[in-house]
Amino acid sequence: METHPPIAASLFFISAATATTLALYSRKHKKVAFFRGPDMLHPPPASSEEDGQAPSGAKVIKYKSVKDSKLSSELSIKDLECAHIHQANLLEIPNLGKTFKGAHVQNLSQMSGTTSGESIAYNKLLGHQDGIIADIVRREGLPPETKVYVRAGPRKELHFEPEKVRAAIVTCGGLCPGLNNVIRELVNSLFHLYRAQSGVYGIRGGFSGFHDAHRLPIMLTPELVDQIHHEGGTILGSSRGGFDIDKIIHFLEEKQICQLYIIGGDGTHRGANKIGEECLKRGLNIAVVGIPKTIDNDVDLIDRSFGFQTSVEAAQAAIRCAKTEAICNLPNGIGVVKLMGRSAGFIAVHATLASGDVDLCLIPEVPIVLEGERGCLPHLAQRVQQKGHAVVVVAEGAGEELLGQSAEKDASGNKKLPAIGQFLKEKIGIYFKSQGQPSTVKYIDPSYMVRSVPANAADSIYCSLLAQNAVHGAMAGFTQFTVGLCNNRLVYLPIPLVVATSPRVMDPVGRTWERVLSVTRQPNTAIQLGKDKITSAKTFL
């Protein structure tokens, strides 16, 4: 799409019927204008300032399709004032070129087998300040400023000389669908897009693999990783803990690594940030890149984490099995399914919405009330009376207000969770017995099954995009960044910002939870939280 100076090439379309919201970000003037019009299949014509229609410095474009003119309307001055943004702040990514002497190589890398001489990114080379607007939804009362993320993609100039690049890849924390896809595409991008021939080290078993003599690194090649995306898990293995900054830096120096790719959640990203800081402190010209991985989908700022959609899809099989057990075990069969979700109930919520068969969904963000007017047990009894059976989905971190918090922690410092699934099974049986009703409760725990399957088609593509853009960023000299999807566009995010805002949680008074209540018809116990507890949550989605 061609641009219209001084507006930069950062265009967003959010379609609702034939209405479209367009946000234009100007790097020069730091101004953003929003307007509504019909869906645009072609770029709008060049525009000029509209006198008296917007605050000074804003560029407002009017565009109408003859065909859809009846569906289009011009904004009033009041509308423009509500939507206008006076300042857009670009969240810059640290670049090694500001500290170290770079190769200053033009990005003319070619795909393997290409003989035309054209760049692999002949029409997509970006500038360091190309941005994607974060807060594209505007309403009256919002401050007239917004964040802008650095747009992900190949840059015109490379900081590293591709032929001399030596990289390392490590996967940390729990498993997640798509890990092998990310590893595979990182290797292929380094070899085929940039022809990095100096070697790619695969660090085995998480951070401990940098210094564990019993788990030596392996050399990753396109041939070795060719078929790994068809398998779940990670070819490198993974673990929690093992972070030793001095030993990790020693490995990077000894092997002359200049690009380090770290795949993991918010805890892993905290470690990645420390590595990046230490590299700069010691004068090491090393790009440290994160790729967010969390089965719980609780890394903040990004639209979603890879593998999440696959896990929600895999959870459907467990819910269907629970429903079959509940229907067939007479009388009053109840199936209980425990899904992952340490502090956020995204998998449980999305699995519930996708299934349509769930009668009760319990998540960490909303307190569990067993009995009384808003009790979940009376609700289950009512659903069983109506249908003859019921299905319950519970996130593993739900119910701490009933069971208490465990003092034990794992190697990553995460608190060990109480056995909420077994607790619910027992409480359901006791309640039905107290009501003089027989019941058969079947408990299914597919927690580790939903995270160890291969990525589905959507996540497979997403993993490829994340990995390719991670390599593009590292080659350009960016460091201490992670790559993710924001407003359906790939961006580079400063790792300190990601770890400061994560983990995010489900909004207990938001639209998504409202949809769950509509599906399950369960009583809304979010009102038990009170305004203070709701507003004290770190980040909502």
Automatic annotation (TrEMBL):
An example Gene Ontology molecular-function term: ATP binding
A matching Pfam family: PFK
Membrane-crossing segments per the record: 6-26
Superkingdom, natural source: Eukaryota
Gene3D superfamilies for the chain: 3.40.50.450
Alphabetized UniProt keyword annotations: ATP-binding, Glycolysis, Kinase, Magnesium, Membrane, Metal-binding, Nucleotide-binding, Transferase, Transmembrane, Transmembrane helix
Reactions listed under catalytic activity: beta-D-fructose 6-phosphate + ATP = beta-D-fructose 1,6-bisphosphate + ADP + H(+)
Essential cofactor(s): Mg(2+)
GO cellular component labels: cytoplasm
Residue span(s) of domain Phosphofructokinase: 166-472
GO biological process, one term: fructose 6-phosphate metabolic process
Keyword Kinase: yes
Record flagged with keyword Membrane: yes
Role this protein plays: Catalyzes the phosphorylation of D-fructose 6-phosphate to fructose 1,6-bisphosphate by ATP, the first committing step of glycolysis.
Protein name stated in the entry: Pyrophosphate-dependent phosphofructose kinase
Species name: Nannochloropsis gaditana
Lineage of origin: Eukaryota, Sar, Stramenopiles, Ochrophyta, Eustigmatophyceae
